[in-house]
Amino acid sequence: MTAISLHHRLPEGWGVPLVVFACTAFLVVVIKLISPGSALAQQIEAILVTAIFLVIASMGQGLAILLGGIDLSIGVVMGLAGMMISGLTNGADAALGWAVPATLASCAGIGVFNGLGIALAGIPPFIMTLASGSIFFGIGLGFTAGAAQRPVAPVLQKLMSGHVFGLPLPVLLLAVFAVAAMAFQNGSVEGRRLYAIGSNPKAAKIVGLPIRPLTVAVYGVSGLCAGIAGVLLAGYASAATLDMGDPFLMPTIAAVVIGGARVTGGRGLYLGTFAGALFLSVLETIITVLSLSQGLRDIIEGTIIVMALLLQTAPGKRRF
Amino acid sequence: MKITVKIRRALAGGGAPFATVVCLLMYAIYAVRAPSALSIFGITNVLNDAIVLAIGSVGLTVVVLAGEFDLSGVGVIAIANVLVATTSGATGLGAVGSLALVLAIGLLVGTINGVLVALFHLQSLAATIGTMIACEGVALLILPAPGGEVADNIATGLTGDVAGVMPVALLILGGFAAAWFLFKRTSLGVAIYATGADAQAARLSGINLRRTRLVAFMLAGLCYAFAGYMLSAETGTGDPRVSSALLLFMYAAVAIGGTSLSGGKGGVFGSLAGAGILTVLQKMLFALGVAEFYTNIFNGIVMICALLFGNLASLLVGSVRRQVAK
Fold first, then answer.
1. Mean pLDDT of the A268-282 span
2. Are B64 and B71 in contact (CB under 8 A)?
3. Are the Cβ atoms of A320 and B304 closer than 8 angstroms?
4. DSSP code of residue B115
5. How far is the alpha carbon of B173 from chain A, nearest alpha carbon, in Å?
6. Which residues on chain A are in Cβ contact (under 8 Å) with B304?
7. pLDDT tier, B40 (very low <50, low <70, confident <90, very high otherwise)
8. Which residue from B minimizes the CA distance to A143?
9. Phi/psi at B147 (nearest 5 deg)?
10. Which of A203, A270, B71, B79 has its CA 20 to 30 A from that of A163?
11. Which bin fits A58, alpha (ψ -120 to 50), beta or left (φ > 0)?
């Protein structure tokens, strides 16, 4: 009953993110219960710091899924971004001024390449992004021979461990990013156009929406987000490997869908993606705290993902 | 009745012929550089390399045709692999017993996926991420580290040849192709195409969507399990961590073979050819002396090209057909 009354009072689509936030809060309480010794504020701080990569990378995945597509190159782009930033700066802060823009531009470029293949050549997003991931991974491998790069510039490492006004810098970054992403996806004209294209491409075409430029832009933004996430991840881990982004690919998809998006496009708020990413990060933390064998951890994680999906699907809803 | 017309067109279409030609061309290039490729030993070798991917993508094709996604394949393959490695030995269940066990597990996971998607209306892409992770966990519980031993009769029996003329792998793949040839003409096969092409129209014409989706996932689970059994035969050992690259390769094989990822169009023959392309490509590049890490780049380019030419071919051949189908 509560879910139904929420749907009546709130703008459309807010129900699922709120349920996911509630689940996340529940998991945080569980963490407190199973490890009563640790301070809750510190736990939450730690979770938020590690959540930033998934939150940022999921933004791009959310936009691609909103258009009815998908971006499978995110993991590779994250790894490439980390390798580029550490390779270009070589442990020196002086180079950051040009290395960061160069890295992010390259990542956005990979996204634009995806978008062009999808929008102009008509290749299905699933295959286009999978193929480009493979291609750019190969190129990255060719340049680096697979070796881990030199240490990341100290400023980046400080960015991921520093505090301002008593709050960790990454948490502030997270908040700023989330607000900006919400403003873009659910507050701007462009964002609304993406919903129109995703829910009915044919109608959007007839109305004259710029489908192709927007598609290219969306995948470009997705590449950019993955790039930012990769640079931050390199700063956090103070090192980079080419495959360090791989574990994030599936969670970006899971975060978007748990947040209430429809895989065929046209539905889902950024708030939902944000909630989904936080939920998965908390879940990851809780499973680590439990100190179980890796096998049991995986089983619990998989089961909880399915349970979260079951919880947000209203019973009796027909789907065709 | 319009729907049956649509379905017949869908059955007639698909990129299988194109993918087969590309696969054979690449094999020819490979054979020029490595003449042993034409011997029975060489052919058996290539087929053995391709068979896990091929059978996995056969299962995936059935789900994709029904208009759904399934990421659980690598999880089932991992469970099957570690089960065979731990139970097929002399003191265990033997070759047939472990096959039955593995198939039962595959059917179980397929049924869970099917129930979540068909009865609880979960989005298949997300639900199967959950089951994939859970399956990988189960595989790790059964065998925490690589090891175990696969019974000799599985390892040698399934990877060799019959009387020096017929690779066992070819017999198995032929069996799958024949089974599909018969299956897609049954009412269930037609229902899968119809559900993927237009679920609402299929429902209105009396097709039971729930049952169709459930069966598609169950068949896929069986195929993944058999793919895992074959993987055990190839490697002769168990490894709980099956590379997630295999999952993406399965999707690539399906798409290169001309099956539409939005459902209702394509078929298993194309996926077999697609798996062939991806396998022969590695062999060909290796025979041509291309450095190993460039194979990633070529893999990507081949995927894009196959789709591009597939689009082009269907534009030339079937612009009228597509108009009707829409």
1. 90
2. no
3. no
4. I
5. 25
6. 117, 121, 123, 127-128, 131-132
7. confident
8. B293
9. 160, -155
10. A270
11. alpha
Rounded distance, CA B144 to CA B223, Å?
Answer: 24
Query: Which residue out of B297, B302, B308, B312 would a mutagenesis test of the A interface target, given it has the greatest number of A Cβ atoms within 10 Å?
Result: B297
CATH number of domain containing A279 = 1.10.3470
**In terms of Cα–Cα distance, which of A151, A148, A149 is closest to A91?**
A151
Give B156 to chain A, closest Cα distance, Å: 31
pLDDT tens digits for B238-277?
A: 998 887 778 888 998 998 888 888 888 889 999 999 999 9
Mind telling me how many Å the CA of A23 is from chain B's nearest CA?
17
Sequence spans of domains, chain B: 2-325
Q: Which two tokens stand for residue A24?
A: 């996340």
* Shortest Cα distance, chain B CAs vs residue A144, angstroms: 11
Asked if A301's CB is within 8 angstroms of B137's CB, the reply is yes
Residues 144-163 of chain A with CB under 8 A from chain B are 145-146
**Cα separation of A40 and B227, whole Å?**
46
Tell me whether residues A306 and B134 touch, CB distance under 8 A: yes
Amino acid at A5: S
B-chain CB neighbours of A309 within 8 Å are: 116, 122-123, 126-127, 130
| Alpha carbon distance B52, B230 (integer Å) | 6
3-state secondary structure of B162: strand
Is the pTM above the cut of 0.90?
A: no
Amino acid type, A191: G
Residue A105 covered by a domain: yes
Domain region containing A119? 16-30+41-312
- Tens of pLDDT, residues A109-150: 999 999 999 999 888 898 899 999 999 998 988 888 766 666
Contact B252 A254 (CB under 8 A): no
Query: How many domains does one find in chain A?
Result: 1
DSSP letter at B239? -
Select the residue of A134, A302, A319 nearest B300 (Cβ to Cβ).
A134
Q: What confidence tier does B188 reach under pLDDT thresholds 50, 70, 90?
A: very high
Token pair 């392309």 in the structure block, residue: B277
Which one of B63, B125, B217 would you mutate to disrupt binding with A, by most A Cβ within 10 Å of its Cβ?
A: B125
- Residues B99 and B229: beta-carbon distance below 8 Å: yes
- At residue B47's C-alpha, the angle toward residues B42 and B53, to 5°, is 145
CATH class of B2-325: mainly alpha
Nearest alpha-carbon partner for B226 in B104, B69, B144: B104
CA-closest candidate to residue A46, choices A278, A306, A206: A278
* Three-state DSSP string of chain A: CHHHHHHHHCCCCCHHHHHHHHHHHHHHHHHHHHCCCCCHHHHHHHHHHHHHHHHHHHHHHHHHHHCCCCCCCHHHHHHHHHHHHHHHHCCCHHHHHHHHHHHHHHHHHHHHHHHHHHHCCCCCHHHHHHHHHHHHHHHHHHHHCCCCCCCCCHHHHHHHHCEECCEEHHHHHHHHHHHHHHHHHHHCHHHHHHHHHHHCHHHHHHHCCCHHHHHHHHHHHHHHHHHHHHHHHHHHHCCCCCCCCHHHHHHHHHHHHHCCCCCCCCCCCHHHHHHHHHHHHHHHHHHHHCCCCHHHHHHHHHHHHHHHHHHHCCCCCCCC
Buried b (16+ CB within 10 A) or exposed e, B143-180: beeeebbbbeebbeebbebeeeeebbbeebbeebeeeb
Taking the C-alpha atoms of residue A47 and residue B31, their distance in angstroms, rounded to an integer, is 55
